[in-house]
Amino acid sequence: MTSPDTSGLEAALRAEVDGEVRFDPGSRGAYATDGSNYRQLPLGVVAPRTVEAGARAVSVCARFDAPVLSRGGGTSLAGQTTNTAVVIDWSKYCTGLLSVDPERRTCVVEPGIVLDELNRRLAAHKLQFGPKPSTHSHCALGGMIGNNSCGASAQAYGKTVDNVRRLEILTYDGQRAWVGPTPHAERDRVIAGGGRLAELYAGLDRLATDHLADIRRGFPKIPRRVSGYNLDSLLPENGFDLAKALVGSEGTLVTVLRAELDLVPVPACQSLLVLGYDDICAAADDVSRLLEHCSPTQLEALDGRMAQLMREEHAYLDSLAVLPEGDSWLLIQYSGDSKEDVDGQAHALLRAIGRDENDANVAFSDNPEREQKMLRAREAGLGVTARPPDGRETWEGWEDSAVPPERLGDYLRDLKKLFEEFGYDHPSLYGHFGQGCVHTRIPFGLRTADGVAGFRRFLERAADLVTSYGGSLSGEHGDGQARGELLTRMFGERLVTAFGELKALFDPRDRMNPGKIVHPNPVDGQLRLGPSWRPVTPATHFGFPEDDHSFNRAVMRCVGIGNCRGHTGGVMCPSYRATMEEEHSTRGRARLLFEMLDGHADSAVKDGWRSTAVHDALDLCLACKGCKSDCPTGVDMATLKAEFLSHHYAGRLRPAAHYSMGWLPVWARLSRLAPALVNSVLHAPGLARAGKRLAGLDRARPAPVFAGESFLQWWRSRDRENPDPADPRAVVLWPDTFSTYFHPSIAISAVRVLEDAGFRVAVPDEPVCCGLTWISTGQLPVAKKVLRRTLDVLGPYLEAGTPVIGLEPSCTAVFRSDAPELLPDDQDVRRLAGQTRTFAEQLVHHAPDGWRPPHLARPATVQTHCHQHAVMKFDADRELMRRARLDPEVLDEGCCGLAGNFGFEHGHHEVSMAVAEQGVLPAVRAAAPDSLVLADGFSCRTQIEQGGTGRRALHLAEAMALGLDGDLPGDHPERSADRPPRPSRTSRWATTASAAALAAGAVLALRRFGRRA
Predict the structure, then answer these.
(1) Over the Cα atoms of the chain, what is R_g?
(2) pLDDT tens digit sequence for 91-105
(3) Residue 908: helix, strand or coil by DSSP?
């Protein structure tokens, strides 16, 4: 096939399709790969605003003979959602739940709706879509249908194919129809009507008849056969169901426009039983026996290797803590109408197998929170195993084979032998053991010719192995490119020929996601890495100590899982949630940075650090660091952004905001000359707007108010000497810019509480700064200088081991995380990282035994700063609030949206407020008048105050200090805290008038001078 005329194609799509049409390098790079080992640069991307617009896009592509690839969450692990095609991304706009029929338990959806969002909308009907893959927070129903997704709940509800009733489909040549079960008489009627639809049904009838015996014999009768086309759905005994035959076809046959789905009731109660075993093979051996005695909702497994990785990575430790003794575990979930029902099912199984709830290798829970802790460890498998601490890279490729459950233990033993033969050490083995499906990630050598050759040989041997057990190459993730070439080994030539006939019937020009399943690309072709991958290896400012000191490895932490596309919970990724753009997700940005490494001849980004495409993608990154903790592989996009900006602007003029916000600590210090005048200028009518424009700030964002007296001024007025650094009661209170110059009452409150707890507070005598604002704007050489000067000032305290108490979470996070990465070989930086504590950590873990915090006895709405969530965590704060008798509602609503300099910069205000309105601001508005609103971060407090909530947030230190004074006010207790007032209307207008007079005088002087000249 000749390449399509992309310029003409792009123009036609823009003219005829109601949607976003993108053929730019940034968009193409962001969609160049998925969660697999494969990479193909798309021709362009279309995000249709309606299903009709999506259908029109297919029509335009057909006119230009351009291949088409439908895409939802883009999490495919076998290469199904990467292709040299026009990518139609349904996930931004086509997300409708069109109808629900509670009586029939069905619904109709558009292809882009995310599973969790669908189930959230169905919750009022107490219904849900049954299959629930681990990507449920961001996988789209269209992708689930294309992939025949399953998940742990398939134990009870089956695969997606078992839950699809009808599909509205569109062929590449324009035939559109609703399809489903089609009795013989109905087929005869359609065929008699003539036309393209008749041609399809006649061809299907002929194919099913010609290959009847092969289909009946050749499809494994196992719960998790996902490989191949579902030709068995065309058998007479299966109702000749065309919708089910098309499920799992990976976009290679038709485009799915809408789907009618079967729904299941949401269980009233659930319980979880966990059984420990000596090894994973012994656990697998026991599966059949367990299933003889119960019908669970889930029967999952995880092995000791995964548990070991979690301990080494310090991840999911709370989940491991509730597991019973053993080196491998089976997790068995029950559902029922009552607590007695689910408890009874679990205890019945224990009696049947001769175990007891009190055995050391048994754990039982009917507490939903504890159950989720247990299940979280299993669900985290892909992320935990992707980047093990030993530095090996592990990959998909043989990550979801399936066998009859009764043969699972022996299959695992043989698979382990195969690993050993190929030198693949001991990959973790886990998965949906109740249905014989095994997940793993293997350390294939995908960077060298020998490694890739070994990869191919292993896949061929593994395919033969699983076939010998009567199993399936794929039990969940599909074939795509990873297994398409191996299908003959599983099904034989005759059935693979039948697959080809089906493809030719629906897509005779091979334009629908070509190279997958039928006429597949080689399993070792179009690799994301491969022996020809030759990336640049740039010198960097950050040391990337956790990535072998390699920027490239830091970028490649992203393996495409896509959790950054989740809609709720956690922090990651606020810009994606606001824009619904792949390019503005952590994954999309990582993909563009990968392209920037220019390792392939067709890399989308060719201008390296100067790339406008990469800059534009990073521009809306809030640098919240949510991905550092929420991403399963720990991508730290804030650090990558800072590194990029440093090189992007090296040797040239920066945006004005980098000077105004990036050098904020300097301007804040200078404000001491005349803080009242500075505040008047910053808020004066006309003058403020002009100043914001010059400073690169958004006109809609009010400037913060400087305090009349800074914390340092207050501290010096006390006229007390700093304690000896060696004093065991000494602590250094870090005077960050925000708690010093904007909200000094926070630092003053912290001094009061720390002294009440028996500590002797020291404050540095010389100006110091953590360098945060220079880091966030990518001015890294300056940040290093600032940090080194700070280390010199803190020298005596670092030598003595004196704790450094941080009040502003972002500054504290610099000392704990950014500084060690910027100066990885500096021993004082390491000392500072180890000695830095949060306010709550100091009081909870190091206060004298007899000290108790004041009793506040109030409800509190609490917003955790994103950097604290990512780096320091919130456990100590929760404990301190508990001891203070606070009743906190710690919000799980994501980032506040201001995020340091981000929300102040020109062009960011709309996204900043969109992020805030997704959860934080509505939650604060809903807080009771007598409750406290707590936010330790300056950004969070500012956003809450400026966001129309009618509330003002306090730092936890301020709340504690108010408690020392006695009972808090009954209504809006934050009014008792001191905050600098906004300049009066008179002073603001007077400043404007003075500026106007000065300007007029200057103009007159210039005119006189001109006349004299």
Answers:
(1) 31
(2) 999 999 999 999 999
(3) coil
- Calculate the alpha carbon distances from 483 to 194, 231, 519, 588 in Å: 37, 18, 12, 25
Tell how far CA 43 is from the center of its chain.
26
Classify residue 193 by burial, with Cβ atoms within 10 Å: 0-12, 13-18, 19+.
exposed
C-alpha to C-alpha distances, 129 to 114, 207, 367, 617, 1007, nearest whole angstrom: 11, 32, 23, 34, 77
List phi, psi (to 5°) of 437: -100, 130
Yes or no: say if 877 and 840 are a contact pair by the CB < 8 Å rule.
yes
Per residue in 382-403, pLDDT (tens digit) is 678 877 777 778 999 999 999 9
In whole angstroms, what is the distance from residue 573 CA to residue 564 CA? Answer: 5
| 285: nearest Cα among 377, 121, 411, 395 | 411
CA angle 940, 944, 945 (to 5 degrees): 120
- Within 10 angstroms of residue 855's Cβ, the number of other Cβ atoms is 12
- Is residue 95 helix, strand or coil? coil
Say if residues 299 and 433 touch (Cβ distance below 8 Å): yes
Mean pLDDT of the chain: 95
Rounded to whole angstroms, what are the CA distances from 484 to 133, 204, 469, 473, 727? 22, 22, 19, 10, 69
Strands of 835-956 (E only): list them.
836-838, 859-863, 887-890, 932-935
Residue 1002, exposed/middle/buried by CB under 10 A (0-12, 13-18, 19+)? exposed
Give buried/exposed letters for 783-811 (b at 16+ CB in 10 A, else e).
bbebbeebbeebeebbeeebbbbbbbbbb
pLDDT under 70: residue ranges of the chain:
1-2, 379, 381-382, 999, 1002-1006, 1009-1013
Do residues 408 and 287 lie in contact, with contact meaning Cβ atoms separated by under 8 Å? yes
DSSP 669-727: HHGGG-HHHHHHHHHSTTHHHHHHHHHTB-TTSPPPPPPSS-HHHHHHHT--PPPPTT-
Helices and strands, counts by H and E, the chain? 47, 24
Report whether the peptide linkage leading into residue 573 is cis, meaning its omega lies within 30 degrees of zero. Answer: yes
236 CB neighbour count, 10 Å cutoff: 11
Give how far Cα 385 sits from Cα of 559, 637, 779, Å: 11, 20, 35
Pairwise CA distance, residues 615 & 28, whole Å: 15
